[in-house]
UniProtKB/TrEMBL annotation:
Residues covered by the PPIase FKBP-type domain: 66-158
Source organism per UniProt: Thinocorus orbignyianus
GO molecular function terms noted in the UniProt entry: calcium ion binding; peptidyl-prolyl cis-trans isomerase activity
Signal sequence, start to end: 1-35
Protein name listed in UniProt: peptidylprolyl isomerase
Gene3D superfamilies on file: 3.10.50.40, EF-hand
């Protein structure tokens, strides 16, 4: 869909759902898992187990909440070792871009990829309460109460679009709210900087996704409060 992105939240469509699946295949039920799986998500004793498979000699910068990460990952069911996901077979094999720590992937991956540096490889074990919980994810072939294993290779750690610095950089007119045009321009600059060729629909889908998830009052702008994920930062 190379056309303009509507200011209001885009209506669900088969194409929109397909693009969302292509873009963020593990994020589709993250919010639902948190909402419906609240009982299991509160289990403090369950945590992500992390094994570092490869650590570069120069480990910098380390990833933190709000950073924009580029990574490949394979997902396996711990019960039988079967692979349910491989990022290299999706989206023409391009590594995935996502913002860390804001719920664009399942909570276990948000935790597992903290303090990780470019070139690092990890094997992580994620309990059901930090993955898809009691309901599982039938479309992704993940049964209820499934423990997941991911093998992750991180390629890039960039300053994400969720920091105060980034907000002020995007907010060209300084009115403390982000318009569709301002965020669109920011995405174009980010894409140009990493030099990878992308279909225009990817830009449109990310732009629509940002507004869908952040423009809570539906006024066509994203306020500092709506956009900022850092509770301690002041704008």
């Amino acid at each position: 869909s190379g056309g303009t992105v509507p200011r209001q939240r885009p209506p669900p469509s088969a194409m929109g759902r397909g693009l969302a699946l292509l873009l963020l295949p593990l994020a589709l039920l993250a919010a639902l898992a948190q909402a419906e799986g609240g009982k299991t998500a509160e289990k403090k004793e369950e945590e992500v187990k992390i094994e570092v498979l490869h650590l570069p000699e120069s480990c910098s910068p380390k990833s933190k909440k709000g950073d924009l990460l580029n990574a490949h990952y394979d997902g396996y069911l711990a019960s039988d070792g079967s692979k349910f996901y491989c990022s290299r077979t999706q989206n023409e094999g391009h590594p995935k871009w996502f913002v860390l720590g804001v719920g664009q992937v399942i909570k276990g991956l948000d935790i597992a990829m903290m303090n990780m540096c470019p070139g690092e490889k990890r094997k992580v074990i994620i309990p059901p309460s930090l993955a898809y919980g009691q309901q599982g994810y039938a479309q992704g072939k993940i049964p209820p109460n499934a423990t997941l294993i991911f093998e992750i290779e991180l390629y890039a750690v960039n300053k994400g679009p969720r920091s105060v610095e980034a907000f002020n950089q995007i907010d060209k007119d300084g009115d403390k709210k982000l318009s569709e045009l301002e965020i669109s321009q920011y995405l174009k600059e980010e894409f140009a900087r990493d030099g990878k060729k992308r279909d225009p629909s990817v830009h449109d889908e990310i732009l629509a996704d940002i507004f869908k998830k952040n423009d809570h009052d539906g006024d066509g702008f994203i306020s500092a409060k709506e956009y900022n994920v850092y509770q301690h930062d002041e704008l």
